[in-house]
Queue: 3 jobs
Job 1
Amino acid sequence: MRYLPHTPEDIKEMLEVIGVKTVDALFEAIPESCRSKEPLNLPRAMSEWDLNAHMDALAATMAPSSEYRVFIGAGSYNHYIPSSVPYLLSRSEFSTAYTPYQPEISQGTLQGIYEFQTMVTRLLGMDVATASHYDGATALSEALLMAVRKTKKKRVAVSSLCHPFHREVIRTYLGPAGIEVVEVPYGEDGRTDLAAVGAMDDVAAVAVQSPNFFGVVEDLASFAQVIHAKKGLMIASFTESIAWGLVKNPGSQGVDIVAGDGQSLGIPKAFGGPGLGLLASSKALMRQLPGRLVGTTTDLDGKRGFVLTLAAREQHIRREKATSNICSNNGLCALNAAMYMASLGGTGFKRLAQINHNKAEYLKRKLMDAGVKITFASATFNEFVVKFPEGFEKTYDRLLSRMIVAGLPLGRFYPELAGHYLLCVTETLSKIDMDQLVKEVTA
Amino acid sequence: MSGYRQGDSGLILNEPLLWEKGKKGRCGFSLPECDVDEVAFDAEFAGDGPNFPDLSEVEVVRHYTRLSTWNFGVDTGMYPLGSCTMKYNPKVNERQASLPGFSDVHPLLPEVRNQGALKLMFDLEHFLKELTGMDAVTLQPAAGAHGELAGILMINAYHKKRGEIRTKILVPDTAHGTNPASGALCGYMPVAVPVNEDGIMRVEDVRALMDEETAGIMVTNPNTLGLFEKNIREICEVVHGKGGLVYGDGANLNAIMGYVKMADIGVDVMHFNLHKTFATPHGGGGPGSGPVAVTRTLTPFLPVPRVEKLKDHYHLVTDYPDSIGRMMTFYGHFGIMVRAYSYILSMGGEGLKEASAHAVLNANYIKERLKETFHLAYDHTCMHECVFSDAKQEPYGVSTLDMAKRLIDYGFHPPTIYFPLVVPGALMIEPTETETKEDIDNFIDTLKAIAVEAKESPELLKNAPTRSKVRRLDETSAARKPCLSG
């Protein structure tokens, strides 16, 4: 086996030093009654070329966005990834290192994550950002737990227009801890009902996604005002990071904690993971943040360097009193996002967001012109809800066979929206692709 | 090779922070011409966009290339970080994960277009079941700690379903910090189980602590001292006898593949660390992947969606009323699963067993050759790792930290230090199976040389490292006046 370097001679020499006859003798440290009698019933080792053929065949059954025209976002977005990004990311000094426990030989990871944290604070307009979480749903759940710790109230409000899967994860995380999750309904404008939050009492926080699951931009400042008057915290979440190239950032709207998905920042969709959880807060909440943080310091010669810091919040020091059980972050994905943001730059980021917006608005207008109903009239970014004609399921399947995926049916998530579809357009779809979709759906 | 010193000085280039370079108007991204009309964004919600530096592609490439040279990875050299299983990460697995059919696919496409990914997940679950004898697996948790949380949530749901309220959980002294922290998220108060003079748990201690208010026990086996918990079967019986369940922390599974099946020794639920045992890159701290396996007792509580096979088709099924729910937005770290699956197929069943055999051989060899030089906390046949301490070097004013830092000058990544907590000044060495005998010998000789230096010229250790990009860093001031962004 090419990953196991020992020759029979090596093994013999080592066993002699240890003073046993066989390697299996070392396993006599395990009681006989605990040891397996049967060999593992697993496939035989495959050669590299057989393995490649096997994997190619599995991958060939899939529908990659390079071949299909996929008009779905809903938490996973198809954006162009510059070749330089995966190339740099494959530097094995980054990928095969672990947590920077020894900062002197981990400055690459540490500076990279410090820059990531900085760019996330600038993207979201917040004071502090963590070294990342698993994904948007877990980051949002942790944000709500932060609010519960801070306010000591055991009830949170979550917009019904937060991603349906985020809400499911929130229930998984908060339910057993005895925290009540109240859903805030939405109105006819496709926005979270502000008045409903106004009528709530004793809530630790309200979480509002913007752009929300319908792609509609929310008025975060108004929610912040209402919840602050009730001594609760304002949490904003998001799934499409590119939006912040055009949309007013959460920090400028009085938001206390922001949690979202960073997959859009140059990370492959990869069937849903690994992605990237972004978590940022105001300075006042810094010590409540879960997970890793990188900070600056100096070495013995006074030279600038970076270390993991504020570890007193974390499980390896505080054990059961930690702010979270989280140990690792999605470090390489954070670095991936940093490389992507650095490649775009501020000017490029704004322009890319504008192109995305132009395209989505083009499709929206073309569909409207063709008589398709746009469900919500409010301002959207990249995604919007449409009502396709009765019997559209057949068209959907026909389009699928032509390698076009005509949006996400919403009935599964919002029964009142059966027959409605969530459409997404990014810079990767051309005018021709969109014209074709319009032609097919109205044919 | 004897006496070969791999730590040397090379040309290290300085590199500023991203925003200390660049010029407004540059871009490292191929922005397309827009083929549709410009549409202004709603003025009420429009912002200014992020204040990022503008850099050319070359600047970005040099920036990260220089940063990478300040890092030490498994591809750089031996990385014997105890309990982290820093084995070689095969490159063919990277090829598989980057196939467009795996990397460039949306998670919400109709199932008919996802059959390859679902089959891969279904088969990977099957492999993990076979390795452990467990009945069902979820691949959803994102990391080991996340798997622990899933497992504890399932234990919690199980007791609740039976109408029982349990408030405590047993956690041995040797446990990873994530164990008590995961328990706390379900409101469980951790109760410490001491280790005996042999470094393992006693049945009597567990019996004395286990009661009907205790949800179960979290066991790492082999434990973090690298020792097999010999009393595990009896301990499981005691816990089961009081209606509790046994959580197995699979962090150290690399020691026992093909030798022990967790289900056979009484474990009810356990997690895997695909990034440890199954050789996926640690990524500077993630992404990992922490699948969880359960016996029949806990199967109804597994997270959703679950992957199922009906006739020749694979489906994502959510209809499980007793499920703890969803742990992540989608199905877990699929890209990591692809690598682990590819690794298992490369190794085969026999190869995996051999990997464990060599991991244990290497650890025992190191233990044997170093036990005269360093204080060995528990002198027994170890599994995949061994734990020394600085007790013999302390009289010279030299600590574990100093020895670890000196190893850096010699070109090795230091072992895990100051963990497990039951060994003061611990030096926890896990060589893994992928190191050559020459590298292991070189590592041993280096540690012996450092022990001599500790006695004769301790200042060499106190000043170490001297050959890295930076010298020792002031962690106290970093925490006192946190500067977390620029």
Note: The mean pLDDT of chain A is 96.
Job 2
Amino acid sequence: MDVLYAVFIAPFVDMATAPIFFAEVIIGGLIAGVMYSLVALGFVLIFKASGVFNFAQGVLALFAGLTLVGLMEFMGQTSTQQLPWYLIALAIIGTAAVMVALAFAIERIVLRPLVNQEQIILFMSTIGLALFLEGFGDVLWGSDVKALDIGIPDASFEWGGILLNQFDLVAAATAAVLVAVLAVFFQKTRVGRALRAVADDHQAALSVGIPLKSIWVIVWSVAGIVAMVAGIMWGAKSGVQFSLSLIALKALPVLILGGFTSVPGAIVGGLIIGVGEKIAEIYWGPLIGGAIENWFAYMLAMVFLLFRPQGLFGEKIIERV
Amino acid sequence: MSVRKLTLGLVSAAVLTAPILATKAQAADEIFIPLLVYRSGAYAPNGIPIANGFRDYFDLLNKRDGGVGGAKIVWEECEFAYNTKVGVECYERLKAKKPVIVNPYSTGLTYKLIPKAPVDKVPILSMGYGRTAAADGRVFPWVFNFPTTYWSQASAFVKYVGAQEGGMGKLKGKKIALVYHNSAYGKEPIPTLQALEKKHGFKLTLLAVDHPGQEQKATWLQIRRLRPDWIFMWGWGVMNQVAIKEAAAIGYPMDHFIGVWWSGTETDVVPAGAGAKGYKAGTFHGAGPGYKAHEDILKLVYGGDVGKAQDNKWGEVLYNRGMMNAVYSIEAIRTAQKKFGVKVPTGEQVRWGLENLDLTAARLKEIGLDGFTKPVKVSCRDHETAGPVMIQQWDGHQWEFVSDWISPMTDVVRPMLEEAAASYAKENNITPRSCN
């Protein structure tokens, strides 16, 4: 009886009796969810344009973070000396340029020889790419944990009893803007429509004059820039280091839930996962020793999968015989 | 016989005999020590300074003293990226070179190597980590975890908190939270803290963080609600940096936040910036490069190039830890050399050296580490020595000691430890040896 009470009643009583804390949990979950969405977006972009699950997306975020810190250090940033805003902006632009250059290289060296190959071949190539970029980033910038400070304020403040952090709010706003831009890009522009056509069928897209090479470069460039934003936001929280590439694990349940082909799905999925795992961890976690949020996110995604295999916003799978 | 077959035969013969020849050549006047390192992967920021500390100390001895007791020290690094399975493979590969001691530098890997040690006759030195129960030398004759263990450290933390609160009696009713890495390593202090909770009447809350610990919002929301008087952290890798940053973000008083000695390095605090100021951590050795041994390393290993030495983490907390571990290994080898009158002792003889190690303050001074750590005297029964712990605090630029040496509560820890060892012995059909 005690167990039933602890599982089915006590958590809800707790939520009702401490509503401000519950609101803080929800907001904390939403903010964490936004951060997951930032990573998930990169996966969605590549998947939409090529039908490939890009195993290297987490490493792209790491590589972008390392490049940004490296450029900032090159411009004179030290642990005691902050760069002026225009140099930080220049370093960010420089990093974006590196990510675009990387997209060109990936298209030329990895993807072009694999046109019309099975999806699994392309997937395997992204595993190779991830391993290469990890090693290359290590050789180029070293393995140290690097502090990343691009001048976003990091102070916390209370609002109606709820603790909010300025950095988290900036991250949420950035993700919102990014999603809005990408949604418009995919739905309303010629390039966006071309991307979707390429995703459906390489050969068919080529036959109607869609330049496959350019499309891939564009999509990998955009995914690289999204990875850069994710790398900045996550890197500023934990320092830029190898484990940044593991944030991809946080994006997987988001993708399963939101759908691999939907930009809004990545956002809504991220928010659901973020809020769900925080509530589970705080109200039910202590009953079984805690640290349940990682597997709970996957469990939540699996439950959704039972009812909607394509995810919440994914395109319905129609196979014609 | 065709030329092709002949060539193939010769190449095969060379490949097969090369390791044997290499081992024989090495055995003459060289002592082999395998270095299982993680210079890559998620834990590389921790692994690199440790590996450099080992390497530089061995290099120093070879250059300055011609090795140890007339034998050159030979080492080979094997990269295992903190992956236990790969670590075991590394060990198995390097075992052929007849190592005299192994320092696994991973609690998971130590657990895997413990059953192999008596079979391979290679003693394990898991300095301040690994299986705490191994401190009972009657059950674990081949494993050493001096100068102190996680359990001893946990008790020293409680003692420190008691002193800060104005006496152990004041702990009653206080709230202490343990934020721990959800792994065998992270769970190590729990039994000790629970025993001390009962004894001193504080309220212990356990908060697990899953690997790698990049996202900890739920943990710190719980801390914010709980408002513990003190937080202990048993973290590793990115978990440390994120936890320190989150603690600062919720405005937790950093001088009431104490990390295990694996959560008290430069790497852990620098990414958190000014927010990390005031954060504390346990340690059992000095910080910084201000010792004679460091001077010698700078001069002989780096040719006086401070920049190059600093790039190699010279004097950082984990570099010093690697160096200290190398010192213990070498002193045990030296002890074995003296006892058995050999230049190149066997693993079995070094095991004896470890068990009879008596590293005095005078000897520490002699090797250029005056005051760097407390003297250590190992015995058949006690492989831990229950060495004391100090608390260091980050002042925004460097670590400073803010406590005296704190002796662990051996009256609580030792019986628990012996009980755990006895339980291990029972599970593994080990008959404890007599140490009388």
Note: The domain at 150-283 of chain B is CATH 3.40.50.2300 (Rossmann fold).
Job 3
Amino acid sequence: MTASPKPSIGAVLTAPIVWLARAADMPLRAWQRLTGRGGMIAFFLIPNMAVFGIFVIVPLVINFFYSVTGGTALFLSDRPFVGAEHFDRLLTCTDHFNPTTCREDMFWTAVWNTSKFVVLQVSAMTVVAMITALILNSKIPGKAFWRAVFFFPVLLSPVVVGLIWKWILQRQGLLNFALYELDMTQVNWLTERSWAFAATIGVSVWAHVGFYALILLAGLQAIPGDLYEAAEMDGTKPGRVFWRITLPLLYPNLLVVIVLSLIRAVQVFDEVFVLTSGGPGTATLYLTQYIYEVGFASVLRNPGLASAAALMMGGVLVVLTLLQLGLTRWRDRK
Amino acid sequence: MGRIRIENLRKNFGAHEVLKNINLDIGEGELAVFVGPSGCGKSTLLRQISGLDQPTSGHIFIDDKDVTGVSAADRGLAMVFQSYALYPHMTVLQNLTFGLQNMKMAKVEIDRRVADAARMLEIEPLLSRRPGQLSGGQRQRVAIGRAIVRDPTAFLLDEPLSNLDAELRVSMRAELAALHARLAATMIYVTHDQVEAMTLADRIVVLRAGKIEQVAAPIDLFDKPANRFVAGFIGAPSMNFLTVEEATPILPTAPAGTALVGVRPQHLDPAETGLDVTVSLVESLGTETVIHATLATGTRILATLPGHVRAKVGEHLKLGGDPARMHFFDGQDQRIG
């Protein structure tokens, strides 16, 4: 009598999958016979589409209904139809550049703060990411270590980022302690309007620059070394090499960085909320925080108004995304 | 102008010596071809000459001026890369003018040079196109054009035809030869293709493991290889090497000190008496038939016979050869006589 061979660990571990696959085989074949190729595509897409539908499409539709209904009730059936009243309230201003002349002054304060934040943060992000990528792409010792160092903040939760920097920047934080030790004037980093605004930009850049630097680094590494050698033979000065060779060849990656960071900057919320809570006053009140506070946090919460603001912000994001697609296609055609 | 002299040049990558005491003198207007197997150091040597790499020791002279520490741009050389290295985002015209603009050359002079080169290489209709819109051959012309407009002391060409298909390679090879004749410029050409080396070179530099094995005109290299390596590397199919005992049927007496006898496959013929071989493979190429065979000792032997010769696998053949066309090597693989 011969003993049956002992099953391997791999065979034991995969046994349930094999069993499941065999069990699913017959009904799937039947389904394919019944519905054809299209039916199989639908079968594999349905789980993902269901999750996408439940967590994206349904909230989007509900958000739209909230935006055209009034009151504080949460159930749509309890909310009276008000048409475009919320949009009208948000958009009515004597002078759009002066939020105090607007019916919803906080909304416009948030819009202008966000606009300033987006322009400055995206500019700073792009420049810092580019410099970081150029350094990481050069011949420096411990390159892999430095890459990990720059990417590490990307892995942190935004709340943790906010807390770390709050610990550093608060009135009696690490930075002021260092300044005190160096006999230098201490600064109210988070309670003085301009410093707080700058801090939100700096923290946001610090938290995300690793991700964008990585995109640019991939682009830099894709540029053939031969081109730089040809430029060297041509006697091209380093500055001209950057402007005439590196930058144009990095354009597709740069475009991705600018558009992604733009979209992300418009949505800025968590790290700033932890760091400054929108303060001092409304100095760092950005659009997402405005929506959050009007919809959920204020005493007189107004889900309809928050939904209308969210829809308008969504519209801006759709435009930015289409811009990215358009620019990418234009570039590809070129 | 355009003499290039290399003295005692060495290049190390870490502990590994890639170029070992290279001494070479390339004359003005000469087309020198560096040839050798992969990793022999031919491209590394070209990079030392170009200035893209610095040697560990030794000197490079261009027109008797020591340029060892001089930057690539200031050596007055132009290079054609294996990948062409054309700037993909620039038009052909911009590719041609980029280097000249770096030199702050007057626009009139740039225009004249570009027009001359474009006319010479027949790329005038391509000037507004980008490299991505060109065929391999057209890119190759543009890369050469970019080198020509610089009016360099010497041209360095790093396997410039290796990315082209076989047909285009043959025609571009002829064009390069014509271009060299027209420009009368010094050219250093790196290739692993010995047909390119034999057809283009004034002199061939054969390298192996970072050392120059022989420098000679193509036909001299073929007829009088300095050692067994050169004898085996130059010529296709490769030379056969037999011991004196194995060669006895076709070579009554070998020169004193002979350890190996070299016979080119083209110099073996079917004969009544000679080497007794067993055919293992027959390659009928139409104009010629290449016979792969083995001697009784197990030594493999190749014979290139006329196309009409028919042979079968397993068949026994007698191959004769002319002793006057044989090569003799001593125990150190060096040529005798």
Note: Chain A has two domains: 28-60, 106-333.
